[in-house]
Amino acid sequence: MNATTYLFTGINPRYQWFPWLPDGLNVMYSAAGAWDEREQRFKPRKFLPGTYDRWLDCGGYTVLNKHGDYPWSMAAYANLVAILRPDYYATMDYPCEPSITRSLHLETNEARIQATVANAVAFASEYEPMIDGPQMVPVIQGWSLDEYLYCLRLYQDAGLIREYMAVGSMCTRSNNEQLKEIVPAVYDAARRAGVSRLHFFGFKMSSVLDGLQPYIHSQDSAAVYMANTKTVRRRWGGRYAKTKAHKQEAFNIFFERARNLRLTISPADTAVCPQCHSYEICPPTHSYPAYACAECGHEWGWVE
């Protein structure tokens, strides 16, 4: 099982310049956010250079709910991957939430799962060899446990099992007991198939689900923009942060939740205090060659 769960913050590219963002932040961009509806093409903002890990999500939930299918071609998406050069990118999947817009003869989850696997197989064959560096991550789709296991079997039959794979249709789930059943079972089946790490798209940050973290190598959340209590919603005058002060508060609340759940928001081990798990770290200097925690004072990693 995973000793550490990495959190990727779903972030709008223009927000990455905010001075209160932690150093070395793991970030996730959505292809939907780079799509220009009027010009019908991608107009991406490149990732800010840094040491964080970078994910590119295909944006399926957003665009399929709006258009019924992807408004861009697989070739256009491959070109976006080549331009942005993330560390990881998802294949173009078909989410299976009951609320998702369904069209193109993909009304059933079985058909959507089959289309998800077909897209991944086609991308791996036609485009992945031309993209050097970024790692393709096939998406396991479904809604029920049986559907996820069915999708995994299709990947096995297609010879497309990767060390790192993702699990979709997680972000709208409110049934915690259902999640407690699905996550360990999918993890066990994936391990038997040859998958060693799983990313769970949109897995909610909740202390109720804290026991599931060992099964999750990584997860993401775009809830950084949203009020998580009625009190905050009243203060902001709505569900989303609007002013600069509200945005700073939103990020502070979000990262504090991540710290409380012991999620790692930076890939560097030295970015988190090993004693109190604070992210307020003083890095080594010539005069003081050690990492030090600004919260509890713990020192570690002396540099000779």
Can you describe what's shown?
- With 304 residues, the chain is an alpha/beta fold.
- It folds into 2 domains: 6-267, TIM Barrel (Alpha-Beta Barrel); 273-304, no CATH class.
- Helix content is 32%, strand content 14%.
- It has helices at 31-34, 60-67, 74-84, 109-126, 145-158, 176-193, 230-236, 244-260; strands at residues 6-10, 27-30, 35-36, 41-42, 54-57, 88-90, 135-137, 139-140, 164-167, 197-200, 218-221, 281-282, 291-293, 299-300.
- α5 (145-158) runs parallel beside α6.
- The model has no long low-confidence stretch (mean pLDDT 87).
Mean model confidence by pLDDT: 87
Please state roughly what percent of the residues sit in beta strands, choosing from under 5%, 5-15%, 15-25%, 25-35%, 35-45% or over 45%.
5-15%
What is the radius of gyration computed over CA atoms, rounded to a whole number of angstroms? 20 Å
Outline the low-pLDDT stretches. Answer: none
| CATH class (first level) name of the largest domain | Alpha Beta
Distance between the termini: 34 Å
Structural class: alpha/beta
Count of the separate structural domains: 2
Major β-sheet annotation? 9 strands, parallel
